[in-house]
What does this fold into?
Amino acid sequence: MGWSRGLLSSVWRALSREVREHVGTDHLGNKYYYIPEYKNWRGQTIREKRIIEAANKNEVDYEVGTIPTEWEAWIRKMRKTPPTMEEILKNEKYRKEIKRKSQEFYDKEKLLNKEMKEELLPPPMQTEIKGHASAPHFGKEKPSEAPTSTGKTFQPGSWMPQGDKKHTQ
It folds into this structure.
């Protein structure tokens, strides 16, 4: 079955004038190809393609990390030129440096939290929230929750809401 599939794919490429141009190989052994725009035997224009031939052909599912980030950006047409090995190595070194720095930061933060729990450092000051500056009671004593008027002075119907002139009688 394997030889027939290879035969059919080579016949198909010959009929469709599909020319694969090998543009690179990554450190994992994956091969990357570019197929320029062409017209097939029926006269249809086939747009350009960027494809990958996986090093591990038994693996059917795509897993994160099996393709370097730079090559994935090229496959998805987020960059025009394929990456060079120097660029991939430089970016890998940069990623390792960022990982190292983040680990250092995490360790320092862990040590700080440990010191705070042991009360070697004074606890952070708590600020007292007194309200917004536009509030009428800002800077004064806190308003009381108890009502300020008595029920003896209330007259039914003496108060009317102001606002819309439609409701005014």
Helices lie at 2-16, 69-75, 85-117.
